[in-house]
Known about the structure:
Strand content: 15-25%
Number of strands: 12
Helix content: 25-40%
Radius of gyration: 19 Å
Amino acid sequence: xxxxITGAGGxxxxxxxxxxxxxxxxxxxxxxxxxDITNFAHVRDALGAQKKLDLVIHCAAYTKVDQAESEANLAxxxxxxxxxxxxxxxxxxxxxxxxxxxxxxxxxxxTQPYTTWDATRPLSIYGKSKLSGERAVMRHLTRFYIxxxxxxxxxxxxxxxxxxxxxxxxxxxLRVVSDQFGSPTCTLSLAEIIADLIPTERYGVxxxxxxxxxxxxxxxxxIVHDRVKVVPIETKDMPRPATRPKYSVLDKxxxxxxxxxxxxxxxxxLNAYLQLRAIRQPVRS
Length: 285
């Protein structure tokens, strides 16, 4: 397939691109410096210039969850209007679209994993803006994948794992929220999921995360391996501008049936990532 990736310079895009290339696909990388998704004419011309394009994977996004509360217009411009520009153009070119969304489209009030059929009710501007992107995709296209993921981390980007590792080098004790539950997901395993999904042409909404459930505190403990003490605290003890869902575990049944395999646990993916990171960044003596 010939696949164009928006946001190719971001954390997810930089994992998806080499993964697809390793499977023999022709990949057209479009980082934000080359593709301004908020400019419709630019999107139309850039995508229209590609010959025999088989799929667009839309990784470009505004992802600053807390900052979005004070930059709502920018969040909606990128995640809503920008995604609509991509969707309208894909419709005109008759090209399918894969849009990467988030667990933050849910309110976290459930006590069992959210299915793809459960009602969305985002609590934050970030979640609302990503949901507006989902709706734009559904409004303009019949051939699409919407892939909701959660707690994303990986090489080449700012994320929770890197933040915790950085703090562990400076502090003897870390205070981390323990009453928000979800599924950490590595970009490297998500890229493999995407690569497995796109040849199926089984379009629709999917939930795609690493397997298992944890909270931020236990996740942090798994990251630091007892090198520093991690103290559990409640969300109310660390107020932040954006409200997070208390429970945003996603049910991945339809995805597993579609790609025909089980998903790695979050612990397996984290250990693989930490091993890869150690190879790339050897410990200084």
